[in-house]
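Title: Prediction job returns without error message
Component: structure pipeline
Severity: low
Priority: P3
Assignee: unassigned

Description:
Job completed but the reporter wants confirmation the result is attached to the right record. Sequence as submitted:
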Amino acid sequence: MFTGIIEALGTVADLQLRGGEWRLSVSSPALDFSDVVLGDSIAVNGVCLTVTRLGPAQFEADVSNETMQLTTLHSLSKGATLNLEKALTPTKRLGGHIVSGHVDGVGELIDRRPDGASVRMNFRAPKALARYIAQKGSICIDGTSLTVNTVNGATFSVNIIPHTQAQTIIQDYRPGQQVNLEVDLISRYLERLMQGDHAADETEGEASKLTHAFLAERGFA
């Protein structure tokens, strides 16, 4: 588990296909590795990866083909800058929100504009994720915990304060940028729970059964 508060930036030292899967090497002199051991989790641009090798100011992680296909990690190149966060500990402040490091989908930056000292960014999420994104709710973009300002269909906006600009890769985003999105963990489980006994129905290839009619039938709308 993570908080969505980026601890340090890193860079891609290497990315190679080995034995049918990928090996990612990350260099980060700014990240404190003193409490990191093999098997620990580190979120890389919001993707939870397991540390398989440690070196001076550097670690390696194996990345499955599925993770490469479903996240933006497939577009990384040597020297690319990364958001990094070590796994949450019981004594750590939950400064952002509960983040699992399991990416729900890939979004796209539509536009950005100055808003005082901050930057207002509008993103488009996959349609399947739109129902989980709520105004003033939380969303994780490339591992960064952010508050949703506005929502319009599958598009939403966030406000990037100067501190976040300086401490994450989000300052470099330009329209068309692909980003990893993780919606609020609670919303996903809430939808599943509200389906009740129908959660056991096979729905492969079908849309979610949590419709307005479904909620009205059960007294929720």
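Comment from assignee: result matches the submitted record. The helical segments are 65-70, 162-167, 185-194, 212-217.
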